[in-house]
Amino acid sequence: MIIGVPKELKNNENRVGLTPAGVSAYRQAGHRVLVETLAGAGSGFFDEDYLAAGAEIFSSAREVWQHADMICKVKEPLPEEYAYFRENLILFTYLHLAPERELTAELCAKKVVAIAYETIQTDDGSLPLLMPMSEVAGRMSVQIGAQFLEKPHGGKGILLGGVPGVPPAHVVIVGGGIVGTNAARMAVGMGARVTLLDIHAGRLRELDDLFRGRLHTLMSNHYNIAEAVQSADLLIGAVLIPGARAPKLVTEEMVKSMAPGSVIVDVAIDQGGSIETIDRITTHSDPTYVKHGVVHYAVANMPGAVPRTSTIALTNVTIPYGLMIANKGYRTAIAQSRALARGVNVLNGHVVYEAVARSLNVPFVPLDDVLQDLPT
Ligand SMILES: NC(=O)C1=CN([C@@H]2O[C@H](COP(=O)(O)OP(=O)(O)OC[C@H]3O[C@@H](n4cnc5c(N)ncnc54)[C@H](O)[C@@H]3O)[C@@H](O)[C@H]2O)C=CC1
Ligand SMILES: CC(=O)C(=O)O
User: Fold this and answer.
1) Which residue in 54, 184, 203, 363 is deepest, having the highest Cβ count within 10 Å?
2) Distance of CA 94 from the midpoint of ligand 2 (Å)
3) Considering the entire predicted model, what is its pTM?
């Protein structure tokens, strides 16, 4: 198979879909790898590193997309990349289609085989290709929040950990999965008072045990969220219903109840966001806006700001699945791996991931039905 690795186009997205180590793994398995020039430079991987690993360097994204059977990316394609879509091209990347109507329509119209990192799910419910980036974003959310709480950055001017004689900041985290747990670890470590809400009592029990009393857990419901948000200095949105648009758990009224200069970091923005007052995605170059006196941060590619760490962490988990697709072809690979099959979002012009179809209110066709209709 021919694997293509174009340069990412999203604002300040310095990650890349494959490292030289990844190229070497594909080459050893007998595949060709085409890399767009400078695709890895932002992550500290240069053309000569890719060449030494056996890649072929192409000078334009167009050539890479055109010649590849499978494109390995990081983020969802941007509109300027839609022209490269074609029937049976395998697109292996984060897609976050629930809030992306236009992209979904393009993938369907061009009959791309769209496999989303974020919905590849093992039988125990975990999301192995989302996990490392959620670890990164969860940890970043607290350092970003701490920065925007500083007065020169528009915040109320408080130190997360306080100092002796002065109370610490109150950090409220909605969602106790990978992002939430990593955010809690950082916030507790910095000395903040931390409250975390989740809808699963079992998860709250695990976290209570893990943090040994240094984290306050609360059942997530409208009443408790409103109560916690009111006194939050830093609010972190970290919910996920796999594949679906994030539920708007924090209402505009709740945001209005926050003190001026408080900060919201909505990590769940890539799935549409969990805060009612977040009406747009922000970028690393213009990361915040102020509404009702509260600083809002809604960057959908947070790990892109720490690309060296993130690229290595991401490709550590994507390469085994990518190799499965390349070695066996996508049809055999998804027949043999239920986890990988759950990653297929669009196939032969149909949305085959139910939560995406429901979020976009478009027809859902089960994956097996689409596979049955495909010519062998
Ligand atoms: N902005 C960015 O750059 C990045 C965003 N993310 C996003 O962060 C979000 C969270 O990801 P993970 O932590 O990996 O997901 P996860 O599946 O590990 O955790 C989600 C948690 O939300 C909880 N939850 C669901 N409904 C809830 C509700 N009504 N109230 C409270 N909790 C609720 C679940 O029980 C679960 O514990 C996802 O949307 C993910 O795509 C992840 C990495 C980077
Ligand atoms: C998960 C995701 O959206 C990211 O890493 O950018």
Assistant:
1) 184
2) 7
3) 0.96
Over residues 258-275, the pLDDT tens digits come to 999 999 999 999 999 999
Q: What are phi and psi of 248, to 5 degrees?
A: -85, 90
Q: Which atom of ligand 2 is nearest the CA belonging to 75?
A: 6
Domain layout of the chain by residue ranges: 2-119+307-373, 131-300
Give the model's pLDDT for residue 350.
98
Query: In the numeric block, which tokens belong to residue 13?
Result: 């997205």
265 CB burial (10 A radius; 0-12, 13-18, 19+): buried
| CATH no. for 2-119+307-373 | 3.40.50.720
- Which residues are known to be catalytic? 96, 270
Res 151 pLDDT > 90: yes
Residue 72: predicted pLDDT: 98
Architecture category of domain 131-300 in CATH: 3-Layer(aba) Sandwich (3.40)
Are domains 2-119+307-373 and 131-300 of this chain identical in fold? Answer: yes
In the β-sheet with 113-116, what is the strand arrangement from edge to edge? 56-58, 32-36, 2-5, 70-72, 90-93, 113-116, 344-347, 350-351
Of the listed ligands, the closest to the CA of 117 is: 2
- R_g of the chain, CA atoms, integer Å: 21
